Amino acid sequence: MTERNWHSHRDAKNARLSSALSLLDGKFAKTKDVVKVLETLIKPGDKVVLEGDNQKQASFLSAALTKVDPEKVHDLHMIMSSISRPEHLDIFDLGVASKMDFSFAGPQSTRVSQMIADGTMKVGDIHTYLELFGRLFIDLIPNVVLVAADKVDREGNLYTGFNTEETPTIVEAAAFHDGIVIVQANEVVDKLPRIDIPSGWVDVVIPADKPYQLEPLFTRDPQAITELQILMGMMAIRGIYEKHHVQTLNHGVGFNTSAIELLLPTYGEQLGLKGKICRNWELNPTPTLIPAIESGWVDSIHSFGGEVGMEKYIAARPDIFFVGKDGTMRSNRALGQVAGQYACDMFVGSTLQIDQWGNSSTVTHGRLSGFGGAPNMGSNPTGRRHSTPAWQSLKPDDDPLAKGQKLVVQMVQTFGSNKKPVFVDHLDAEEVRKEAKLANVPIMIYSEDTTHIVTEEGIAYLYKTDSMEERKAAIEAIAGVTPVGLRSDPKEVKKLREKGIVALPEDLGVRRQNAKRSLLAAQTMDDIVEWSHGLYNPPAKFRSWS
Amino acid sequence: MKCLWLFPGQGGQHSGMLEEVDSDLKKQVESWTNVKLLDSEEGYQDSQQIQLSILLLQVDQIDKLKCKGWKPDLVAGHSLGVFGAAYAADVIDKEDVFKLVSLRAKLMQNSYPSGYGMGVVVGLSRSEVADIVAKVHSKDEPVYLSNQNSELQNTLSGKISAIKESLQLAKENGASKVQLLRVPNPSHSPLMQKVAARLEKEVGPIALHQPQCIYLANNNGHPVKDVNDISYDLANNLIHPVFWETMINVALEYQPQVSIEFAPGTAFSKLLKAKTDQLSIITLQNMSVDDADYLLNKWKGKYND
Fold this sequence. Notes:
The complex is a heterodimer of chains A (546) and B (305). By secondary structure, chain A is an alpha/beta fold. In chain A, strands 3, 5, 6, 7, 8, 9, 10 and 11 form an eight-stranded mixed beta sheet that branches. In chain A, strand 5, helix 4 and strand 6 (97-104) form a beta-alpha-beta unit. The relative contact order of chain A is 0.11. Chain B is globular and about 55 Å long. In chain B, the strands form two sheets. Chain B has a six-stranded mixed beta sheet with strand order 8-7-2-1-9-10, sandwiched between helices. In chain B, a hairpin with a 2-residue loop joins strand 4 and strand 5 (153-159). Chain B is built from eleven helices and ten strands. Chain A binds chain B through residues 85-86, 89, 93, 107-111, 114, 118, 365-367, 418-420, 541, and chain B through 123, 125-127, 151-152, 221-223, 225, 246, 249-250, 253-255, 277.
């Protein structure tokens, strides 16, 4: 019996790199050779991670992947946290790739639906971010990873800085299991500001023809916040943040949470809550939090990714943000998701649909969008052990072995921007499961994890309900004039209010007529710039051209 | 700079709209089709006049833009607009496209002399309208869910009496607006099978070419790059709904920076504006090709860096 080769992966990697020697000078390849490099180093059927998250995109490498010869490179199994760019799908049309495992597909959700329906794309599964990152080390170990860096030095060390995001996680999965790490770099320099990823983990560096694509995804213009959102923000601050003593938290993307951020220095201050709530955050550096930071509300913020325009402000506030000696922030999506899931008292998010039982989803007909960070952070981590006042406050009192629970809050207006009811009997996702032949209904946040729902009508404290019937009644009570809400029985609502399961604005001491725009600490982008002492520099599309 | 070209169908025609059109081209079209184009209100009572005139207007604008060096990356035509789209994508030659549309208009005109047409429902989702149609539709009272113009604007096609009944039900079920359309055919429904079959025969022998850009297909909203898919769409889009909402969602996922809506009308640009603020929008209904050329040159620098 011949002895098994225990280093076949290493041999295969070395063979591939040897065959690319003529294209390489040390670790460096020429910009113009990118397609040849990919054709040489990637083999049919490879598992390939193409870095694309909801902000940073390895756009030079993804464009090059559409130009490889499908005779040489085909049937790739792509692993991507976010399907964001057209070429992420073009490679399926071209036959370069055939299978996809992903988390989020919002910007390409129509084409994803079509490609699944006509068989152009085979979907492994839809994941939460942490599941997908986790599988890179278990059963989706990549053969090749294609990532983006801001700067690289002559030895191949990488600086990813502000937008480090998931680059180290992806690189680690390949570098320590004989996968090939290919990096596009915006710039080659003699000395890096700091080393985010050491050169020993990197195989090939290609200077990009232009900087990687970056989206300012978390910037919300305060001018677009409505009085209804201000009302909901006031209710949430009184009925949830204050009531449960929420100190550690994550906010989803949206105007509802922006409104809350801008209400802390005004309404929150009036209530005497400074120092008592909202101290430690897992959050991208959203500009609308600047007034709260400047007024001394915030102790710390760790971030999944960066945000365009916040660079100088963050560099000047290292007590608050995670900043290297060089003065730039270091983000990390994988650790941020862990922190958001396990180390936070509360997640506040929004959704497109909530069903009669309290399940919610952003997947709708014809749009297989997948999910962002919500399913991880919007779930109760039953493995949690450490205690905080907020977590304890949800502990049922009738069980001697009971433990606390994560606060998972959905904030929605009863009708969406398309004037359709957000509250529905059945999620579109149920039909989508059948159409796309998925194993599970693509629910974003399950009813069992959802502890509160806030609408312009009031708050439903779902964690207090004893039965599914009571849970449904609580949802109906705050679902307004949607078909679900119209079933609500006034006598039942009265009982639910007495039991503290439903709270209307008057029950919380919130007066509708006080929900005015003047209550926002900043009402325009200019106000935010002023709060930042001129350190925040809004992206072009948020600047007014007066 | 990635550019999306949009081609409307019938509805926006008005007298005098051909005034700027190249007179040689107009004469050529009249000789190819044996139809004298009147460009008057009276003329636009006639389906052949409408369809040929709209196509002529669009082809003239396409030629002028291309002459200045502009090309589309994506084309989307609504109903009759597919012919302008296919011409812009270099799929079909000029003479062929006019002859084909001339015949299409004639066949449509003769297919349902009376009692059939289309209606529109605003404010209900497509699945809600589908439920209503399913209640009304029968062999004797046929009505079909047809075009998907936007998420909450869908059309019905069929027998007028069945459409009226469906519209009434839609209103009772919360539609914000219902209306019978001034269309004399149950277009974009299976009732147009005969016309489509005849057109299919006609398209067969025409030499079509591979498209030079992505073509958004009416019949399923997919982006297609194969001439056979486009050939099918040209002949058969009358028996399928126009999945405009899906076509536009897909087009936007290709991340164009500029859209140009060809005349007549500006309706599709309005729908686009409601969907995205990421596009620079040109409408040739109220802008000359020279002005469009000026803007495109100005934007080119901005988008190509």
